[in-house]
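User: Please predict structures.

Assistant: First:
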Amino acid sequence: MDDPVNGVDPMGLFRFGKRPLSFLPGSWHWIGSGGSTANKRNYELKHEQGFYEDGTGDNIGLGKDKMMRNEDISKYKLNETHFDDKLMREAEKSLDPGEYKLCKMGGQSNNCQDYADRLRDRYRFLRTAKKH
């Protein structure tokens, strides 16, 4: 079954996780999660990354230097929602990450949290399309 120490799930269930931004102290900080305004508007001071838990060690997230693929899963607080690894790989391949933009000032942001939202949306679209 699920092995949280090694970040492996033989069932192949992808998960998103968050960690504090690197310039913040290592412990979890006061900024809320779940239903917080910062979370809903994608300006939490946290990095969001997705982890394939099929034993490959693959992970995906958007950063200022483009795609981040070498994050340490043990540094993240993982979300309890699971996604199918295979379908998430399809979603990732079909989604252009776009140019990184941290803040929404004067337009639209495209940060790690925005990318994760778009990845979840693409996953749901593909899952629905496969059902019909």
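Second:
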Amino acid sequence: MANWTAADIPDQHGRTAVVTGANSGLGLVAAKELARAGARVILACRDVGKGKDAAAGMTGDVEVRALDLADLASVRAFADSVDGPVDMLINNAGLMAVPRGQTRDGFETQFGVNHLGHFALTGLLLDRITDRVVSLSSFMHRIGRIRLSDPNFTRRYGRWSAYGQSKLANLMFAYELQRRLADAGSDVRSMAAHPGYANTNLQGRTESIQDFGMRLMNRFLAQSAERGALPTLYAATKPDLPGGSFAGPNLPGEMWGHPHRVRSNRASRDREVQRKLWELSEELTGVRYDFAVLRR
């Protein structure tokens, strides 16, 4: 079977995509390719100026709107601004291994931005989503553990532990969302994807000596952002991909390669923890999903 590339994206005319964090890195590539294929693309960006700069380099129907995933009020305002159907919601934006911090709502920054912000956004847009949701995880989900009693690291903070938790949470959210969609009799599909190791500005924000090492790794070991975005585009557009799929690179180790379906670790498939994480996320964000709006 031939390797899947962006040239395999089906015609997207008449479809609308929302891509978070679309002003740089993987989100920029995904938005650019979807627009090239004919989709109307909403670039959901914290920095609208950078979003407009990114949009200027794209062809097709693109627009920029403000979205700060570290602020639930901003998430609600963005969701309220989206009228009409959203065929694809791509929960792409994220932070990695940043110093200890809090979102505007008091959540640990990585858990708040990477998971809770996207959990809230998806729930608030649920009545308008028509095809699929793609949540970006990482091969680093394997180092994660869901700290149900202390998800915000109020005690001892570890930047990589917090990142691993957030990426495991992205994956568990995708699986639990798929199960709840199926139980509601909906045709909407929830997918997950990870880019392998891609050269983006996600790396280099630790504000420590680690930044130097990651810059070297980006230069000599990482694949391009264009290649790293392929699993996202595969999960978002491949017509026959079943709900609950996890897409990643096809070479051993899943660090590089072309997209195909991959398998996550055992912890990510723990249904009881998935359920508890969902309930905790609803409690923390105040967003409760109404699957009745999707019943057919």
